Amino acid sequence: MQFFKIVTFLLPAISLSSAQAGPVPAAQNGAAIIINECNFPVYYKSVASYSVLPNTIPAKGSYKEIYRLRIVNGTLNDNGTVNGYLGGISIKISPNQNIANSVNESDAFDASTITQFEYTYNPNAAPGLWYDISNVNGYLDKSYTGWPFEEFGGLVLKGTSSDCASVTCPPNNATCSAAYTLWDDNRTLSCRNNNSIILTLCSIVSDPRGLETGLLAGNSGVVANNVLPPKATSCLVR
Ligand SMILES: *[C@@H]1O[C@H](CO)[C@@H](O)[C@H](O)[C@H]1NC(C)=O
Ligand SMILES: *[C@@H]1O[C@H](CO)[C@@H](O)[C@H](O)[C@H]1NC(C)=O
Ligand SMILES: *[C@@H]1O[C@H](CO)[C@@H](O)[C@H](O)[C@H]1NC(C)=O
Ligand SMILES: *[C@@H]1O[C@H](CO)[C@@H](O)[C@H](O)[C@H]1NC(C)=O
Ligand SMILES: *[C@@H]1O[C@H](CO)[C@@H](O)[C@H](O)[C@H]1NC(C)=O
Ligand SMILES: *[C@@H]1O[C@H](CO)[C@@H](O)[C@H](O)[C@H]1NC(C)=O
């Protein structure tokens, strides 16, 4: 079995000063959105502190989850801050079409190369949201001859405001320099937690705000809204 490491998050120890724009309240949290522009389904697991079963985003479909707070060990204060340790969320994504035909889809997913859309919502520190794209588990044999969506049109990650720097992984580039390739790269970005960040697979798009408006209007193929796979079980991070 392949165990994935969520190692790419370096939570900066930033203390709030009056000069910095603090995080906005959790009620205003944006969302992590994936738009599947591929002409095939992709498989994903949205992983916090327990293992989950894989789900599918159909061709031209999408997935959305409002930023989740992950308290690894600690307590939530009345004012929305946390005493203790925070962790990140990793939405693991694979284009491996053999997953659907496997006897054990979860095991087949875990054995596949993945691209990870990672974020941490941190109510303690400005600007409140950290995010990245990681291909660290995109080259299981360490060959670095192509990350999972490299041959299918690449990907782009954009925020709903220009405060959120974007990540572009162009197609037909064996490694994506804007994403984590090695665990000790430094590719984590941040912006305020009331922005949404939108990952488009297999296409480079220019209008993330329009895409989100379309999603919120309900005329899209949103397959999940902040809903974890129903058979989530309690387990260690993988
Ligand atoms: C959680 O934090 C408390 C206080 O620091 C510590 O005593 C406890 O061992 C921690 N638990 C785990 C599971 O790490
Ligand atoms: C939030 O509450 C905690 C615990 O009461 C306190 O230590 C912290 O200073 C408060 N933070 C803010 C920004 O009000
Ligand atoms: C798939 O295998 C895992 C162990 O790797 C097991 O926990 C799970 O129950 C299996 N799922 C099915 C549907 O057999
Ligand atoms: C594409 O890959 C080459 C090396 O393989 C690299 O020099 C170049 O910067 C990459 N282009 C982009 C846009 O990342
Ligand atoms: C990562 O890069 C940012 C600027 O892009 C820099 O401020 C930060 O110190 C770097 N972190 C490490 C661990 O190198
Ligand atoms: C986020 O909140 C700040 C402070 O209230 C506000 O200025 C900004 O317009 C908000 N951004 C979004 C995308 O709603």
Automatic annotation (TrEMBL):
It comes from the Eukaryota. Keywords: Signal. Transmembrane segments: none annotated. Residues 1-21 form the signal peptide. Pfam families: Bys1. The keyword DNA-binding does not apply. The keyword Lipoprotein does not apply. InterPro entries: CetA-like (IPR006771), Osmotin/thaumatin-like_sf (IPR037176). This is Osmotin, thaumatin-like protein.
